[in-house]
Design a protein that fits this description.
two-stranded antiparallel sheet; mainly alpha
């Protein structure tokens, strides 16, 4: 919006020429999102507390989680607002990828809101039925794949560490998009179990894809690095910057001991956004590295459930795996910070794939 209002003025006042630069608009998108999160969070926390929209704790969970039941949740409402508004303010709104990402994030936020509403407002501890929740997520992901194909988006996927190697998935590309977007969304959701545990890696992954988006949208840099050039994808840098800012602002209040939790409305929407970013920038496989924490958390649940159903034995003391470390006696802040450190290392490894080819 500001881009369309102010950039045309550069013909009169040269200072407005800065609005043509994605880097400039990304910086201020990040700052805007950060300020929105910092300023509006106290108001939202008071409102959620007044409405008694508080966290529900698993009866079989770690004993030290009992004190979290008085902490308000559904703070993801503000994350959504703090991501979408700065994007609308600073991005080029003629870019189809920007609108696709906004709509996907909002759609996953609606699904998360419905799940949270059933759990925290209606008192239904199970929330949305898995069939409905996953079905809705799958439908949104299918819409993403169809939209991209309708706009002549290639069905190739890049292979990290290998120069100019791409696999054409053909019609399987639709299934691939669903797996990536829905998988990323639910993996972030499973990670959201400790104070600041999910939002930290989300912020790190968003920063990584901020770089990937910029490079993929730059013809010379993408050619130099031998990564797919996606015309227009550079504008997604503004969106990724808003994710970083919103995450950082939310972390101020979500860090241990948390004053608010994001709920499914936050985790599902952020995960869906990361999955869609990876699809558009054609860094889908690299998402496994960038989001390694989310992958391990999701796999720990899969292994735990499979092992118990097939052999009657548990692989971990409790799943997701962060609860396993809690029950082993690790302090919650230690688990959180160590997972953040791992997320940073994985992000650096992912960025290194740009040169190791």
């Amino acid at each position: 919006m500001l881009y369309h209002l102010l950039y045309p003025l550069h013909k009169i006042y040269s200072v407005f020429n800065v609005f043509q630069y994605i880097t400039f608009r990304t910086i201020y998108s990040t700052i805007t999102a950060l300020l929105l999160s910092l300023i509006l969070s106290p108001y939202l926390i008071r409102r959620l507390s007044r409405l008694q929209v508080n966290q529900r704790v698993r009866s079989d969970g770690p004993p030290n989680h009992r004190g979290k039941e008085s902490t308000p949740t559904m703070g993801g409402l503000l994350i959504l607002f703090a991501v979408i508004l700065p994007t609308l303010l600073w991005a080029n709104l003629t870019n189809i990828y920007v609108w696709l990402l906004i709509l996907v994030t909002f759609a996953f936020g609606v699904i998360g809101f419905m799940d949270d509403y059933k759990k925290f407002i209606e008192g239904n501890t199970k929330g949305l039925r898995p069939l409905y929740g996953l079905g809705a997520q799958g439908f949104v992901a299918i819409c993403v794949a169809v939209f991209l194909r309708y706009n002549n988006f290639d069905t190739d996927i890049a292979v990290p560490f290998l120069k100019d190697v791409q696999l054409d998935l053909g019609w399987f590309y639709l299934i691939f998009v669903v797996l990536v977007v829905v998988g990323a969304s639910n993996a972030v959701n499973l990670t959201d179990g400790l104070d600041g545990l999910a939002i930290g890696p989300v912020m790190i992954a968003s920063g990584t894809y901020m770089l990937f988006s910029y490079l993929a949208g730059h013809s010379k840099l993408s050619g130099y690095l031998h990564i797919p050039y996606i015309a227009g994808s550079g504008e997604l840098t503004v969106f990724a910057g808003a994710m970083v800012g919103a995450s950082l602002g939310f972390l101020w209040y979500n860090t241990y001991p948390a004053q608010v939790f994001m709920g499914d409305i936050g985790s599902l929407s952020l995960g869906g956004a990361l999955g869609t970013l990876s699809i558009i920038t054609k860094q889908e496989i690299v998402l496994i590295i960038v989001g390694g924490i989310f992958v391990v958390e999701a796999l720990s649940v899969i292994f735990q459930v499979s092992s118990y159903k097939l052999m009657g034995k548990r692989v971990f003391k409790m799943a997701p795996i962060h609860h396993h470390f809690e029950l082993k006696g690790w302090a919650e802040p230690k688990i959180i910070v160590r997972f953040w450190i791992i997320a940073i290392i994985l992000s650096l490894i992912a960025i290194s794939t740009l040169k190791i080819r």
